[in-house]
Specification:
Order of helices and strands of chain A: HHHHHHHHH
Helix content of chain A: over 70%
Radius of gyration of chain A: 18 Å
Distance between the termini of chain A: 53 Å
Largest interface: A-B, 47 and 55 residues
Oligomer: homotrimer
Strand content of chain A: under 5%
């Protein structure tokens, strides 16, 4: 499947980076960063996950060795910065972001498998590739990354479906361009459905027992000491 | 000592990763993250320090190449997520965390020395291995990592004792499995004593002169401009 | 130019790391961190950008392989921690920080070009080398890095001038020690002028239309959904 993927990979990668970079740039504008802050956040969101993947795989990081990869996030930053970010535009960007999530969770896992990683580490790297840019972006912007919060819709689970499905297909010997595309589409559909229907993941038993009505902050009574104090 | 360490290393590493991952998962539950957020934080806390060490040493990062390393943090996340995190459980986890702190500060330094690092850089890498997971975890969770705050008990100093002791033993030619274990135990004991007795490190002279009574926030009058403004 | 740069590089690098480490240590003291927190922040600010550059270039990271690089940030931390950080001292440190910004944006780009990077990726890496330490430091300290905020004076633009000028000189075949020094001086002068005159970069059109009077927080009405929700 490698040769097939390679042919289609580059333009798809650029599109995925553009989608993630848009999300990062929207976050930057919402946080009222200046143009260069928007640029940095678009770069972090667009190329952060792939950069992390390449560092772990010890490859020359494409985010810094390829001019195209480098150039796409600034374009996204300019688009967001000049255009008025309407609700419609942000919605469109969220759909694109979901597509990139599906794609990178599959291609990240494929890359790891091609480098001889065992299935479980390959899945972990695929998920990190897909969610890494959003994590980096949230941390830089001084927000708890939405990926982590229970009051946000499913994000890691679609990535896990994409990465896990890819590893399962590979183990079964059925991984080709078509089946990989189907897994990416499944991951994308799951993310979009979660967004439309507000699907969320369970919180810890301790919070659920304290009553769902209390909001996230109020439900945090610090009744036990911090994990780092005795 | 290399062969001796190697024999005992793998199960000890898994135990240390489990201890750090527990701390990360407790933090995630305290911050009311969902299950996948807890998973990510457990991975970051458990394997973050070792991942950073392996990237610096330019080794294949064990956190992503070894199935065991990859699998332990999710187990810790499930344990924390399903169990009700009682005060007793958190206390037990803090003791385990101190053990992992002692162990990783020693093994991180040993790994760096084995790769031909000079003593001081090896100590720096050993300390970073030990505290890196907690730093990554705190940053992702949107908290100032407790490692940095003056109102938290000693954390870097025990790591420094572990790493420095290892480098000193190596320089003296007395580094073997027994002496390395003693240094790790010393580091562990220092951390536990600091926790029990509330030992803290000094703050800057400027704050001490402004009166200890004022709390951390109030004592921050922004009397001088930010280092980044003129 | 390589041999010329190499001769002058090491002491200049140490001076630049010291300047960045001072900025990090001042931030740590302002945030009321303890001594070891100050140490970690000084290390992150001083060597973070270069560490990132070396990881991307897949070189042994000098921040951890060279004793001098390792030792300079602790010295800065001790200086800041013992001395009373007066306004005059912070101002002096800001000027030094601007000098380091100019220098690292040039030397980071040169290093990337020497490793065969195309001009645009080399510029991106040069800028990241120059601003990376400040980013890491801000994130660890739980602050939105000033680099990103519109209400801070120009920081990325001087780095971009330094990196872009270096790449342009290299493309024109005129990159030598003298011309590289001139570009670094230009970058430094731009940063200092921005600080003195309060030069800032534009915010997004959407904020400007909502009236400049409203402050950054109030101007953030969350009128559209977060980029990560639908």
């Amino acid at each position: 499947m490698n040769s097939l993927l390679t042919a289609a990979q580059y333009p798809l990668d650029l599109a995925g980076i553009f989608a993630f970079a848009l999300s990062g740039a929207f976050l930057a504008v919402r946080k009222d960063f200046d143009f260069f802050g928007t640029l940095l956040l678009a770069e972090a969101a667009g190329t952060g996950g792939g950069l992390f993947r390449d560092l772990v795989l010890r490859l020359p990081p494409a985010a810094f060795t390829d001019t195209g990869y480098c150039l796409v996030p600034p374009v996204a930053a300019v688009v967001v910065f000049v255009l008025r970010p309407t609700r419609r535009l942000v919605s469109a960007s969220t759909v694109c972001d979901a597509g990139a999530l599906g794609m990178f969770s599959v291609t990240g896992t494929v890359k790891a498998l091609e480098h001889g990683f065992a299935p479980l580490p390959a899945i972990a790297l695929g998920v990190t590739t897909a969610v890494g840019g959003g994590l980096a972006c949230g941390v830089l912007a001084g927000e708890i990354p939405p990926v982590l919060r229970w009051d946000q819709d499913l994000y890691v689970l679609p990535a896990l479906v994409g990465a896990g499905g890819t590893a399962a297909l590979d183990a079964a010997g059925h991984l080709d361009l078509f089946s990989a595309g189907c897994v990416a589409a499944l991951s994308f559909t799951l993310r979009i459905s979660a967004l439309r229907r507000g699907w969320r993941t369970p919180r810890s038993a301790v919070w659920k027992q304290q009553g769902e009505a209390a909001d996230s902050e109020a439900a945090n009574p610090h009744r036990w000491t911090s994990p780092n104090s005795y």
